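INTERNAL AUDIT FORM
Audit reference: QA-55
Scope: verify that the stored structure record matches its stored sequence.
Auditor: D.O.
Record contents follow.
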Amino acid sequence: MEDTDSDGVKAHAESTYKEDGTFSGTITFDAPGAPPNAPKSATFSGKWKIEGDISIETLEKISLDGVPVPIVKKFKILDIRNNTHISKDLEDGTSSLNTRKT
């Protein structure tokens, strides 16, 4: 996943979803104007499940200070292909293209 927020901060996340309902990953940041000692990356983990066409992800741990956990996010799965799927965040309405590494 890649994203740019309204402040120009770019983020790239890579996640691994396991059959046991857990996920983990790394997110890297490119934040123009950030202090030199600002974090450039973080690791995270949690649990996931599918209910119908909704993916529910619960972020349980993240290596950044000040991020309150757990965080629950719900995504409507719009389209699934061989190595990609498109989902829509049910909270903010943004869509994302997710690519599976082969």
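Auditor finding: record pair retrieved intact. The radius of gyration is 14 Å.
Action required: none
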